[in-house]
Specification:
By secondary structure, the protein is of the alpha/beta class. It has helices at about 40-50, 85-90, 90-105, 115-130, 140-150, 165-180, 195-205, 220-225, 245-280, 285-300, 365-370; strands at about 1-15, 15-25, 30-35, 55-60, 70, 185, 210-215, 230-235, 235-240, 325-330, 345-350, 380-385. The protein contains 11 helices and 12 strands. The radius of gyration is 30 Å and the shape is flat.
Length: about 400
């Protein structure tokens, strides 16, 4: 059964085409990895199929009564709601169904026997739907997913308005998983997850009964949860059965086949052109030359995909800094409340340090405090001489 059908899709931005006459089908139970180089249109494709963006041409058709779940990191969470309150809204349609069922129960005392039988059958179906969708164990389901994604670390009664951007994204992901839609659309869901929470999500998706489309640059994670690859390249989407490793093997084999066919055809074209050039003016061989020219004219010429430009880096040498890049003494980081004890830290020239820890524990706050972007609550930071900073941040 086709849950999503995309036909003859074309779209672009200005004079740059992103898709050209693309068709796509998502079937029940398929776990799809959507891959391609940055800028090939993965997120644009997600926006088109979720109706956030209208394509220039083509059709997007969802099967009837499909519940589609999309991780939208820009959703505004209402101040005054706790994390638990937000997670419970994943079951709002079930709360509405329960209210409708209770209204029918209340009506039963006012109807005749025939109508009563119809109401009993209808409420029985509603009861089954509530049971099958975990309505009577909502709190335990909320706790299970919240614990799996590490939300219990900040407390489920905490106001969502007080959360960081990464923490809010985790709440939205948990809500989406609790909704258990017929189709999950996930764009880089591991970005804000710690190692143990990525492992929990991996197990969850491996056992997910419904379909999903996943965009992820985490190849080991992608490989472990999908069974199909859709590759976006040169304005097209190509289907490959299997995981990412199988895609690489088949894609490389196809590429080599096309290159071999291209070389063979180019050799044939050169021979035909040479024959025509040498024989078209000769009365005895002009007919053969015309025949070969017709073959040339009708030939469908194989074209190789243009090579993508490769990034080039030119790192300028700066003056050598002093021995110490920074030193902290009794540094306490935080905002209204401290996020650390007193920290005495030192970094020397040439050291390479990995800073790890759970989301929300203060990693970015520590870096920004060392750089002087936010004031510390106590202690001091001394930066070394002749420092040239390079900063990459998701903020």
């Amino acid at each position: 059964m086709s849950l999503l059908t995309v036909t003859n899709l074309s779209h672009g931005f200005g004079d740059r085409a992103i898709f050209e006459d693309v068709s796509f089908r998502l079937l029940q139970g398929e776990h799809i990895g959507l891959i391609g180089a940055n800028g090939e249109g993965k997120s644009t494709f997600m926006n088109i199929i979720t109706r956030k963006l209208e394509p220039d041409a083509g059709n997007v058709t969802w099967a009837k009564r499909m519940r589609v779940g999309y991780l939208d990191q820009h959703v505004v969470l209402q101040q005054g709601m706790s994390i638990r309150d937000v997670l419970r809204t994943a079951f709002q349609y079930l709360y509405d169904l329960e209210a409708e069922m209770n209204a029918l129960f209340a009506k039963m005392g006012e109807v005749d026997a025939d109508e009563l039988e119809k109401l009993l059958e209808e409420t029985g179906q509603m009861q089954d739907e509530l049971t099958n969708n975990d309505f009577y164990i909502i709190d335990s389901k909320v706790d299970e997913v919240a614990n799996g994604l590490g939300l219990d670390e900040f407390g489920l009664e905490r106001d969502v308005h007080d959360l960081s951007g990464g923490q809010r994204t985790k709440v939205l992901l948990a809500k989406l998983l609790l909704e258990k839609p017929d189709i999950l659309l996930l764009d880089e869901p591991t970005n804000y997850l710690d190692v143990e929470h990525i492992e929990w999500l991996r197990n969850y998706l491996q056992n997910y009964e419904n379909a999903f489309i996943l965009i992820s640059h985490d190849i080991p994670f992608l490989n472990s949860v999908i069974n199909l690859i859709y590759h976006m390249e040169n304005q097209q989407i190509t289907r490959y059965a299997g995981d990412y490793d199988e895609f690489l093997r088949v894609h490389e084999m196809k590429k080599q086949q096309v290159e071999a066919a291209f070389k063979k055809q180019q050799k044939e074209i050169a021979n035909l052109k040479d024959f025509v050039a040498r024989n078209k003016a000769n009365a005895a061989t002009s007919r053969m030359a015309m025949s070969r020219q017709k073959k040339l004219d009708k030939m469908e010429v194989i074209e190789l995909d243009a090579e993508k430009p490769k990034p080039q880096f030119d790192f300028k040498l700066a003056r050598t800094p002093g021995r110490y890049l920074f030193q902290t003494k009794g540094l306490v980081i935080g905002y209204d409340e401290p996020l650390s004890k007193e920290l005495d830290l030192t970094m020397e020239r040439g050291q390479k340090i990995a800073l790890s820890g759970a989301n929300g524990i203060g990693k970015t706050t520590l870096l920004r405090s060392i750089l002087g972007e936010i004031p510390s609550l106590a202690g001091s930071v001394e930066l070394g001489n002749i420092l040239k900073l390079g900063i990459s941040s998701k903020r």
